[in-house]
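Can't paste images in this forum, so I'm doing it all in text. The chain is below; anyone willing to post the predicted structure tokens underneath?
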Amino acid sequence: MGRSSKDKRDIYYRQAKEEGWRARSAFKLLQLDEEYNLFEGVTRAVDLCAAPGSWSQVLARKLRTKEKKEHVKIVAVDLQAMAPLPGVTQIQGDITKLSTAEEIIKHFEGQSADLVVCDGAPDVTGLHDVDEYIQAQLLLAALNITTHVLKKGGTFVAKIFRGKDVTLLYSQLRIFFSRVTCAKPRSSRNSSIEAFVVCRNYSPPEGYVPNMSNPLLDHSYDVDFNQLEGSNRIIVPFLACGDLSGFDSDRTYPLQLDSSKEYSYTPPTQPPIHPPYEQACFMRKNNLLAKEDAPAASLDHALSAMQLSASEEVDQQPSTSADQRGSHGINATDLPTLTEK
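Text version of the structure:
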């Protein structure tokens, strides 16, 4: 399989590269905005679980227009550092920590956000019940920090897996938002249980005090106890959004879509810098994967050589200005990111 094979199999991956997006997920937020007009009147936005940065890119391009460029503030949060984006402040932190929420508010000079988005998802295991549970906990963690940073009347958009217990999540969201809708963008594969909840008009219960130490859902996750029935069962509207006559994310397309324009391969906008799988790729390439007769000394020597090589690459890179550095003073040009989400 050549490097163009994925361009055939995933038209949105190909378009993302051609249009300069870091990941195909950018189209999901763009299509959600087409339906819900999410960015109207927004001057302060937060992107949770932001890496590799495609949703932050969308926020920057849509919000930082010439007229209000100076007034817009965007904060991207992720445990994994990512390459810098113009007009986006990066926080490398944990969304379950109160200190992260406080730092977001600090960047907004004491004000709350108008919009919070989260495209975070776990590394799926293939065990659907496990994946759905972990995704639900991630969504609730995003909702929890959102209650600390979102202004009343604000909007929250997050990825959700539509599993058998999804009504339990809907009931939690309806406690804090008067309008909750489940949306499926055209760029989201039909074969995936992924969808997005669009929660508008943030209005927490009277007397509610945000608290990171208390989970919103119980930890027992008893199947019978958590099944909501009757008047307690929340059913939210489901909407397919995006141009329904546009590209099908599950379909394979020819490389040459336009007969008047010849196809040419486009590399990813932001290739990985030091991804988590870098060491595994190095070991495989050098035939160092676990073998019974492989001497430990040779493996340690090879890994040390790889780390030395990486450090030399960093030393050879040109220095960066202060606005190219992350919020913790990290050289942002050396930070890892991904090319697909």
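The chain has nine helices and eight strands. The longest helix spans residues 128-149.
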